[in-house]
Specification:
By secondary structure, the protein is mainly α. It is 83% helix and 0% strand. It is globular. It holds the Pfam family HXXEE.
């Protein structure tokens, strides 16, 4: 399989996963959060309280901004063959492999994003790493260079949430 097809496919998997979250976020928080709140550790409750009023509009803005960044990274990767860019982006996204199933197990309920994690993200990552490894793309250098994507992605992620909160305020009036 062509590596560039796998890289471009990332955007499809990314969007399908985020569509599941966008569609489910408000109703899940309204229905499930009050039921499961007492099962959540206190440090996590503090964080969830900050985000429990996140609307689908606000989350959609975050997804839009992150999609622009992801598409730019994918485009640059395909044009330049600098695969560490994609590997870094994919590592950040692949954290969903652990977060959604773990949240679901700990909370003993469905969490938004679980189904696409199990049915799309995990199989996609297995295929990506099975294709990349034999071609020599996965090595220590690529891993170290991928930090140049992973580390800056953290403030980009936080900034996207801040922008979304401000912009959603005006859009939802």
């Amino acid at each position: 399989m062509d590596i560039n097809i796998l890289i471009w496919s990332f955007l499809i998997i990314f969007m399908l996963h985020n569509f599941e979250e966008i569609i489910m976020i408000e109703s899940w928080f309204n229905k499930k959060y009050p039921e499961i709140r007492e099962h959540i550790p206190s440090f996590a409750v503090k964080e969830l309280e900050k985000t429990k009023n996140t609307t689908a509009v606000q989350f959609s803005i975050v997804v839009c901004l992150l999609s622009i960044v992801a598409a730019a990274i994918v485009l640059v990767t395909v044009i330049t063959d600098q695969y560490f860019l994609f590997i870094g982006l994919n590592i950040v996204f692949a954290l969903n492999i652990f977060t959604h199933p773990l949240q679901s197990i700990l909370l003993k309920c469905y969490v938004p994003g679980l189904w696409t994690t199990l049915l799309l993200i995990i199989p996609y990552n297995i295929i990506v790493y099975m294709q990349f490894y034999p071609q020599g793309v996965l090595n220590l250098t690529t891993g170290v260079y991928s930090l140049f994507v992973i580390i800056p992605f953290i403030p980009v992620f936080l900034l996207s949430h801040w922008v979304a909160k401000k912009l959603a305020f005006y859009l939802e009036r």
